[in-house]
């Protein structure tokens, strides 16, 4: 005779379905979430685009790392775009549309045909962890009786600024303001009021300017389809049973508290890359942390860093989606060179647009760079940020990069590009005070001054604050910390969903 506990042990564990938007900034933290769930001995099905799956297999060890966990499986689906589509910059918006029109119908068909992924060894899905931009998820889950957990890869502050869209619109605190002659209103607005403070977002009064609102607000038309889609997806969050944030209460506690008025359960478990490291150490697991690089990493830059003095190098990377003009590349290069600081710049081969995009750096500048700087196409970013030679990070302020820099104790110079980056950069400069925000300008003199301020003039001030904040976020994912406890609570919550 078997006891109840024996029967419980014979039952399959919870089965979590994860579906990220197929861009690196969303794929990366959701792969790490999958890793954490595998460490909790859950079954995990991870939806990935065919294109990203091929690139993961080519450029990472993710497949080999996940092979340690028999309960994990990738399921790949087309994203509906041709192989040569850029899928970055403004092409990312086309990707979002194609996912909705092509990937989602194929996903729904697969789920029904395969009985919601049930098998002899695997129960039907226990819950659906959906990227916060997947607006189909609430209807899909309600129609099929599946608990929905929304994963927000960006900051709680960004979510909150989008969620408050109706109040911002009513208060005319965003550039178009509902005026009938929108294009004229925007020009006038930008000229006069972009530095005015926002008053309609509780928790961010006193420091958030109109200039710092999410990039999706920067449109000429109130009916812009991308803005409408993003707002609609965010406003549906109260239909989820729970929300997972890749953030922590020490960084955004007041905003998380505001969110909890609208969402029944909010689990702040970040920084998720540090949570994975800690849990691997705690379990004495052999597996290494899983990364989601979609480009080949040039590890020769680590050898170059090894030869540089401590805290002497500024690391420059504008992420996986940012596009630069050749003119902007030249402004940044001149600013870097005139600052007399050593630098390591990640310049993606597809990151420069316009004429001369394939050869953006003139030969005479390449000569000046030798010995002082290094250009690479992609780098192992976490390893770079934690290298003792790195003393600053010039960044697009993507949330993954920002969290990695915070955890590494590296001050930032922020040049945001889109989405949550406009808001993140303001938090870096005005709330956490661990860097400078130079948004909406690309001038070599301003760039040079920011670099000198961070690496020389105010170096000690920024390093002290960055070091203290790094210690704080490390504590939050350690045993007894808020993110550590929130992760354990999330695991128990998912277990409670098993019927």
From TrEMBL:
<dbReference type="GO" id="GO:0080044">
    <property type="term" value="F:quercetin 7-O-glucosyltransferase activity"/>
</dbReference>
<protein>
    <recommendedName>
        <fullName>Glycosyltransferase</fullName>
        <ecNumber>2.4.1.-</ecNumber>
    </recommendedName>
</protein>
<dbReference type="Pfam" id="PF00201">
    <property type="entry name" value="UDPGT"/>
</dbReference>
<dbReference type="InterPro" id="IPR035595">
    <property type="entry name" value="UDP_glycos_trans_CS"/>
</dbReference>
<dbReference type="InterPro" id="IPR002213">
    <property type="entry name" value="UDP_glucos_trans"/>
</dbReference>
<keyword id="KW-0328">Glycosyltransferase</keyword>
<comment type="similarity">
    <text>Belongs to the UDP-glycosyltransferase family.</text>
</comment>
<dbReference type="GO" id="GO:0080043">
    <property type="term" value="F:quercetin 3-O-glucosyltransferase activity"/>
</dbReference>
<keyword id="KW-0808">Transferase</keyword>
């Amino acid at each position: 005779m078997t006891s109840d506990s024996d029967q419980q042990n014979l039952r399959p564990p919870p089965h979590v379905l994860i579906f990220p938007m197929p861009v690196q900034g969303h794929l990366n933290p959701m792969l790490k979430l999958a890793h954490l769930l595998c460490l909790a001995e859950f079954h995990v099905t991870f939806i990935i685009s065919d294109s990203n799956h091929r690139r993961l297999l080519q450029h990472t060890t993710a497949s080999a790392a996940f092979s340690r966990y028999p309960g994990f499986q990738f399921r790949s689906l087309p994203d509906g775009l041709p192989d040569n589509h850029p899928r970055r910059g403004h092409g990312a918006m086309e990707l979002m549309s194609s996912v909705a029109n092509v990937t989602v119908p194929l996903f729904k068909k697969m789920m029904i045909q395969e009985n919601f992924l049930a098998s002899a060894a695997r129960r039907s899905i226990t819950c659906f962890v959906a990227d916060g931009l997947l607006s189909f998820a609430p209807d899909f889950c309600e129609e099929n009786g599946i608990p929905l957990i929304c994963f927000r890869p960006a900051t709680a502050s960004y979510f909150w600024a989008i969620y408050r869209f109706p109040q911002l619109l009513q208060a005319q605190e965003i550039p178009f303001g509902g005026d009938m002659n929108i294009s004229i209103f925007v020009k006038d607005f930008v000229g006069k009021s972009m530095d005015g403070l926002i008053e309609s977002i509780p928790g961010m009064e006193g420091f958030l300017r109109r200039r710092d609102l999410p990039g999706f607000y920067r449109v000429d038309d109130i009916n812009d389809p991308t803005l409408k889609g993003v707002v609609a997806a965010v406003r549906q969050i109260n239909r989820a049973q729970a929300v997972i944030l890749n953030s922590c209460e020490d960084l955004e506690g007041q905003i998380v508290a505001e969110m909890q008025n609208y969402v029944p359960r909010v689990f702040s478990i970040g920084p998720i890359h540090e949570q994975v490291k800690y849990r691997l150490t705690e379990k004495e697991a052999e597996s290494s942390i899983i990364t989601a690089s979609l480009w080949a990493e040039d590890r020769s830059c680590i050898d170059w860093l090894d030869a540089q003095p401590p805290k002497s190098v500024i690391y420059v990377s504008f992420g996986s989606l940012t596009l630069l003009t050749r003119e902007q590349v030249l402004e940044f290069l001149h600013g870097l060179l005139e600052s007399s600081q050593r630098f390591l710049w990640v310049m993606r081969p597809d990151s420069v647009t316009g004429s001369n995009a394939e050869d953006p750096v003139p030969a005479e500048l390449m000569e000046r760079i030798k010995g002082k700087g290094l250009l690479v196409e992609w780098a192992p970013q976490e390893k770079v940020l934690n290298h003792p030679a790195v003393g600053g990070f010039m960044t697009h302020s993507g949330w993954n990069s920002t969290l990695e820099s915070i955890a590494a104790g590296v001050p930032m110079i922020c040049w945001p590009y889109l989405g949550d980056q406009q808001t993140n950069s303001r938090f870096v400069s005005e709330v956490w005070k661990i860097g400078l925000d130079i948004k909406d300008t690309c001038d070599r003199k301003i760039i040079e001054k920011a670099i000198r301020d961070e690496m020389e003039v105010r170096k000690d001030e920024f390093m002290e604050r960055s070091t203290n904040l790094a210690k704080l976020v490390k504590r939050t994912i350690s045993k007894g910390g808020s993110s550590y406890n929130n992760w354990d609570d999330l695991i128990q919550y998912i277990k409670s969903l098993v019927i």
